[in-house]
Amino acid sequence: MDPVRNPFAPGAGQRPPELAGRERELQAFDVVLERVARGRPERSLMLTGLRGVGKTVLLGELRSMAIRRGWGAGKVEARPDAELRRPLSAALHRAIRDLAVRHRAPDRVDEVLAVLKSFALKANKPDAKLRERWQPGIDVPPAQGRADSGDIEIDLVELFTDVAELATDVGTGVALLIDEIQDLVPDDVSALCAACHELSQSGAPLVVVGAGLPHVPAVLSASKSYSERLFRYTRIDRLSRGDADRAVLAPVEREEAEIAPKALAALFESSGGYPYFVQAYGKAAWDAAPSNPITEEDVAVASPEAEAELAVGFFGSRVERATPSEREYLRAMAELTQGRDESAGTSDVAVFLGRKPSSLSPARDSLLKKGLVYSAERGHIAFTVPHFGNYLLSRADD
């Protein structure tokens, strides 16, 4: 098969050639956009799931839907230990520029940009030297006394209110999309919840769409108890057999090629239906096939190549981030779950390693912070990466 025509795209956040199995989420967001456009109250959204299920891709698709409806839209990727104020300023600047195209009063746009600039400048520490101070690329003087208190909760509520009013002026809305939302620092989580609460009460046309790991609901509720009612949570999971087959068949057929039914079954077995793995195994199978159609034998030949690629780019990079004590903890989890995508009891990990639970807390907490594991439920821990336990067991002798 011609490798130049290979349609599969196993990349981080890269949109697959066929976005299969996400129709329900897309339709739900379309309803949100329509309700907000009609002045109806609507909750912000939170997408949760393991790594590799396509949360970032879906977030990008929702952003595109908002833009096609004439909304302003900005996207943020949260990072551990990094405050939200600076990247949020850049995202909302983009959204305001989208709105400015449709607004008939440039002075009104400048007023909101001035508030945004005052908000953004508070990202600088008071004692920062002049050459170290960040300057947002906003060509208006900062406003005084609005979104510039330095208290992120107060400032974010005021900023969201002003941006939403600008959207109301042009009869549209604003979508703010935040990826890796579990990495926000606690103060920013609290501020975001407070701002969304204010928006929901006023019916303002600004929607926050977050995406993150399965424990995001716990992160938000630990900050504000009302967050359980504030957001609509949607769990993004692996694809069904039918959707996984469509994710492979549709791009193959668009290239006027074919794939045998047994090859499709073998691809599903190898990938487990996880979208990232579907793309990885599909790409390897296409390249391994000497001719059309792609057969079950081609998939068998390609699987080691796909697994080697995943071992380096998907699994290996994460193992490298762990310290020796953290790797010991991860290995114990893999042994206890026998490589399955299941949770392990924290007390069971301690027994397995012959250690006191308290002595393992630093390793567990560090793994949580690095996003390699999450608390599936009280007293249990699970991998954030599908097939990770099986990968660790496969290299047990390394």
UniProtKB/TrEMBL annotation:
Residue ranges of every copy of the Cytochrome c domain listed in the record: 168-334
Cited Pfam families: AAA_16 (PF13191)
Keyword terms, alphabetized: ATP-binding, Heme, Iron, Metal-binding, Nucleotide-binding
Record-linked Gene3D superfamilies: P-loop containing nucleotide triphosphate hydrolases, Winged helix-like DNA-binding domain superfamily/Winged helix DNA-binding domain
InterPro entries for the chain: AAA_16, Cyt_c-like_dom, P-loop_NTPase, WH-like_DNA-bd_sf
Molecular function GO labels: ATP binding; electron transfer activity; heme binding; metal ion binding
PROSITE patterns in the cross-refs: CYTC
This protein's name: ATP-binding protein
Source species: Prauserella cavernicola
